[in-house]
Amino acid sequence: MAKKDIIDYLETIMEESHLEFDWSTQWNKRQHIIEVFFTIYAETEPDLVIQDIEGTVNKENIIQFEDAICFFDPTKSKIIPENYLAALPFDLKKGIKKGFLDAVIKMLRIVVTEGQSDLLDFATDPEIETFELHWNELNFETTIQTAKDTNRYDMDRVEYPKF
After folding, report:
1. pLDDT in tens, 122-138
2. Among 30, 33, 122, 152, which residue is least crowded by beta carbons within 10 Å?
């Protein structure tokens, strides 16, 4: 059996998690970045017009929200962390611990599930003027520590993909 790299491992745990949202992974080889994009949707009232920060207006009573997390090597990657829900550094040569990736996906599931509820509220309550997702770093660190304390943190590493 071939050894899994970061992308293979991420896709496997995301598929096995049966996530309730659309997702995809992208590997930017030049920037040494692995991105996980995810999308959630909400139905709106027929006469409700919602415009995103780029000026795009919703169509067909549906709004779509897409965001991403990224894994990057701080020594080689040039990213703008604010452009991501979470920007997670890793060492290109050492790879990433499986337990860390498991915690990321667990946290992503929580954030997006809460976000889906908030997006539905945003889509149906005209009093709510903005919507955004929030990555809680303290909750993420607690998730990692709990996994370590209960011996569910896999210390094995997965490698950065080979060209």
Report:
1. 888 888 888 999 999 99
2. 30
Strand positions, DSSP E, 44-148: 62-72, 86-89, 96-97
Q: What is the number of other CB atoms lying within 10 angstroms of the CB of residue 53?
A: 7
Token pair of 159, please?
């490698």
Cα 64 from Cα 79, distance rounded (Å): 24
Kind plus residue range of the DSSP H or E element containing 23 = strand 22-28
Inter-residue contact 59 to 41 (CB < 8 Å): no
Instruction: State whether residue 101 is helix, strand or coil.
Output: helix
Q: Tell me how far apart the alpha carbons of residues 76 and 29 are, in angstroms, rounded to a whole number.
A: 11
In this structure, what are the phi and psi dihedrals at residue 86, rounded to the nearest 5 degrees?
-150, 135
Half-sphere exposure of 10 (CA within 13 A, CB side): 25
- Please name which of 43, 38, 52 lies closest in space to residue 129, comparing C-alpha atoms: 52
